[in-house]
Amino acid sequence: MASITNRSRYTVSVTRRPELTRSFPHTAKARANEYCGMLRQQGLTPRLSQGSDAWLVRIGSGRHRTSFAARSREEAQHTVNEIEAQRARGLMIDYTAARKITFAELVQRYIDAECPRHKGCDVERYTLNSFLEDAYSTVGRPRPLGPGAHAPRHRLRPRHTPRLGLEWLFKSLADVLPKDIEGYVTERIGEQGYAPATVDRELDLLSQIINWARKTLRIHLHESPMYGVRRPRYFNERDRRLSPEEERRLFESARAEDRLLARERALETALAPARREAELLPNESARKRYLGPIRAAIEDTLAEPEAVPYYEALLTFLLETAARRGEALNLTWQHVHGNVGHLPETKNGRARDLALRANVRAFLDQLPRTPERVFPMSVNQVRSAWNRICERAGLDDFHMHDLRHEATSRIVEVARQAGSPLDVHELAAITGHRDLRCLARYTNLCMGTMATRLDELFEKAQRAGARFVHKGRVRPSIRIPPGTSADILAFPQRGTPPARARSADKRKA
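The structure corresponding to this sequence follows.
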């Protein structure tokens, strides 16, 4: 059983008097009639009409009742006929849920229900919250704060540039079109100047939300809004290599940073009693005035402490093992066994082992084992120290992750020079890559060895007298696997078999 209700607005108009035209909601017909009566008292002839651009359709009853909005009666009746026909055949797919939830509501639901299940929860939640804040500020509406909402943006990132072109977030999920998302991409890259890779990662997150809605929440869509979106094209692979001179300056700067770290820790140890006394003062300003002269006096008399090579060991570790920064900082002493370092959890969620060479183990032996972690430093601390190290060493456009690329490149080059190049699976076992496409950039380093091997194989084939007959033409120089007989490879294709050809020649003779 289906019912179609007109929910369009009522309009009261007077001929040649447009200034008297007024519209009323579909629930305010009494007010519209009252306004008509007032106009008639003035000697006018008003006309009351109802539009036909908003229709409510209800189908079924009880638990199986569904409702949706339509833009015309014809659209509503056509949809009712389709639904009833599908129900009669047992093929009913309910698309109404996608019209009852806006994209902004879906994003908030994803933040609350799905984000906490992910490893990168903080980054996802922060990005999506900024999406919603920018969208609500664009339309001038207060954002309803859910349990997963963040603090106001000015306390999180003061220089954040608000996103524009997000009005489509307030459309129902079924009404969002690819051109809406492409408009946002154009605005974000063209007008605001953000990198295409940054915008592409945001599109990945939006696509992830839509797939979650379709697969987990069973919100059916005729087609995904991401289907047909033309993503930005970019090439951001880095090929920065480290020259020997740059490596020398880098490690000199790391040793200088270790000396600064040792001095700062010694100073904090000497300041510890004064800090405990300063805690009794009423405010931060008084504590600073109290600690200032004491700190200056300690700095003047403090002897140069013995430096522990934390940063030198960390850079050596990254450059020799091709580990990621987070993997190195999370490595604990209980997982270091001889020349193997075990990583219980990595970026891709799988455990793996690191091969610790002799020079890496020599540096690790110089580190104290009192902290639980091998490198007891936070990510922010390492990031700040890395900026100082590069600035002191005069390195331009060199990222800490470039050490991983440098380490992998050196492994490939050393294996090639030793005459036993690594295949891609062996290299992936060393670096921890699950996607072998990420290792494609290192294949150019192996081309010299590949060319040498091809020359050797073709030379062996020629010495063996191997032939390759293709369409009546004999082509020499076929690649022969080791141990393969040349007679097996000397076969024709689309021609007369060799045995039959020899017997035919004898008959002719």
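DSSP finds 18 helices and twelve strands in the chain.
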